[in-house]
Sequence to fold (963 residues):
Amino acid sequence: MFLPVFLLNLVVWSAAAPQGLNCSWNKCNEWSSDANVINVHIVPHTHDDLGWIKTVDQYYFGTKPELVPVGVQYIYNTVIDEVAKDPSRRFSFAETGFLTRWTSTHTDYEKHKLQQLVKSGQIEMIGGGWVQHDEAAAHYVDIIDQMELGLHKLDQLFGECGHAQTAWQIDPFGHSRETANLFAQMGYSSLFFARVHYLEKAARLRNKSLEFVWNTSDDLKTKILTGAFYQDNYGPPEGFCFDALCGDDPIIEHEDMDGYNLPEKLKLFEAHVKKQATFLRTKHVMLLMGSDFQYTNANAWYTNLDKLIHYVNADPSLGLRLFYSTPTCYVKGITEAAPQLTTKDDDFFPYASSNHSFWTGYFTSRPAFKGMIREASALLQLARQLNVLAAGGAVNDVEVEHMQRASALAQHHDAVTGTAKENVTRDYERRLAAGMKDGESVLHDSLAHLATKKDSTAVLPRQIRCELKNETVCEPIRNLSSFTVTVFNPRGQTVKEIIRIPYYSRSAVVIDGKKEKIDTQITKTFQNQVQSAFPRAPFELSFPVKVSPLGFATYFISNTTSRLSKVTQPIKTSANDDEIFIENKLIRVNFDKSGLVSSVVDKTDNTTYPLKQEFLYYEGFDVAKEQTSGAYVFRPKDNTEKRPATVAKVELSKGSLTQEARQIFNQWMSQVVRVTENSKDVEFTWTIGPIPADLNITKDFITRYSFGIKSASIFYTDSNGRQMIKRTRNAHPSFTYENTEPIAANFYPITTAVLLRDDTTQATILTDRSQGASSPVDGALDIMVHRRCFLDDHWGVEEALNEPGSDGRGLIVSGTHVVQIGPAKGASERARIGQQAVFHRPEVTFATHDGNVNEYVKNFETTFSGLRADLPAHAHLLTLAKWSGKQIILRLEHVFQISEDDSVQTPVSVNLKELFSTINITAKREVLLAGIREPASARSDYDNEFLISLHPMEIRTFLLDAE
Fold:
């Protein structure tokens, strides 16, 4: 399909590009309208990773020069000085995280110089996010947040000229449809990147479709002009890199001087431009002049580029017109040319740079870090909400911004991917941990304001998060006979579920806010001794909670009762047992004689669904001088998976609230299969590690779920947690598939979900972190959960992915998969709600308590709801946060796709005026997704200006005046 590009940009350009200002897109250097002349847009730029080989601060200040001799602060300094010398010069900066560091370490005079260059159109801000985020492993909430953080900073610094027009994703290792969809909703006029599967790249060169229109959402009909670079990188043509990091000769134009090379340089340049032009559909060519951390000495660049422009333009016979430009001016040029462009509906995963180099390992690399990022993100969402709802009390803006910056940094395409050096990853983790500590302060301060009754002078006990709660460790309550548990709900619907906390006593009484005793279950803790990195609590305490939307509920726990509670003791099983199963009122999970799951029975209609789950691994390709498995690349030694264990020792723990099957496969691999009261979901909490280092053989571990579904080679993966994308084994919609790596090439990124379906049945697996997934045979799903590599894969990190773990033996990691299996009808709704539930799990804090419930209730509220009523099930409160002054930013989302169940396709309505319990909304203004641009035209759904509608997959963003 072809689309005239001017039709695409007619709407986008009017919404995105403010007119009447001297911003770069209104101050483009003049190009030629002669049909025989190629317009060459010289685009000086620098790509500055916020961490990779060095930490973000080491890169900024230039420390550790023995690793990389660069300092981003010097790039800004010298570029500003050089661009100011000539009004025709241009430069493009991308990463706001570094820009913010520069503005915080320089004088007002220096900042003013930069502001003037931006507002006069000589410097353009492109991309605009805090980082250039990864597109495989980043969750859409985190993508939106990091883009909002960066773009809001640019708006504050530069006004409308800081509103980036071009999305700039030049270094990520594959590109998602949802990321492009989010960019389109933010108002970007275009998107550019460098990395494309080598077979798709060849196809696009053949049919001149490096530039195309990407249809990014079937529901919203969004689209964006997209460009893949001619070269397989984002650097200058060969021979024209004038940076200290390069080895190219400068241009020497004086014939009487040694090294005179002007004719050769011009000939080489002409050849490159004209060759590149043959693969494009207009007379505009964009040449990127710059690359990783370049322009530490901007004078060398501009001196040579000035010469190049001068001498090429002085020779009309070349048929070239050179000028300094920016990506947005290039888009303006091709928009004016109005070419017929092809369209694309799928995405760019997996990325392969050659026939054996499939970049599918990073979907899973550093799984513990990926889990930490997800935990920090969920806490950030809650902290932002509470900082608004408790705005009349303590102000935690500083703490929230610390959290935002740490979380945004972690979305960088060498952070969440797990592709940075070990010490750099530790730096990311340190920042996230500090941010989560700030989050704990926000929770305490907000709770103190919201819970303390009007006439009370009591001081709320300090609220503490147990960071190792999932490891059944909580030191702050170890020696307490009484304590409170406050459960926070960040979702827009009431939550009812069973929570589990570490516990150190054999007796427990749990009382809710109404001073009523509630059901409890004490269970002996499960641990595979070799895998226990910390001394665990001897028990787990489970009890049901009910928490209102955007609210909290406080519970009182005491072990001072004279009666010992019944402790659920594990029961060992054997192959001689007639039946091995766990169950609740809704489902039963059966196990075979080897201790593996064999089926799930839906007790409501007596339907049995086959389900087999097992662990497998692939050995990595180990020829050091060839493509190996590493942080980026997954390349099995052969295509045969190996079984680390064929049987599991199983013990059963059967309580009234939860039942568990505890499997030990060997010393370094164990799992808990769990069912919870009133839920049809089956939880698989796996613990793997330390992966044996025998013979230094790389191992990539997967868990395989076999459902017996007739999937016909098709499965579906989520795109950044939103759209579901159809995948077909051994096929690709955009090029002719070549089966050079049958295992690695069929892995795709999953952020929250992967599913199989046929006419009658659907199986969905929900994940608590980003991973890689595949369907190796019909009816089965593989998810890669852990990796240990002993060779570098030769893509720049120069370090094997061999995580030492907390004690040097190797990383031990735990994670959870939630498996849903049942009738195809209604399965999508169940899965969508499950995705939100897994991401936005209730947050729990602990505090000391003297056991006097009456006194606590006299001074503090024990329940709270930030909303007046539950949102409709299809609606999700995506963002509630402070913006500027008394304004708050609100995002509401319809979480379903039209292609899913008929029952979820209808729009839902929300009354913003009647939404919040503690906030009075006095005015609203709708903005585009990032919060800084207004839509081209106002939208009115109803006569009531505060009543808004949400359609499938729609996110609507509002700036609200509140009091």
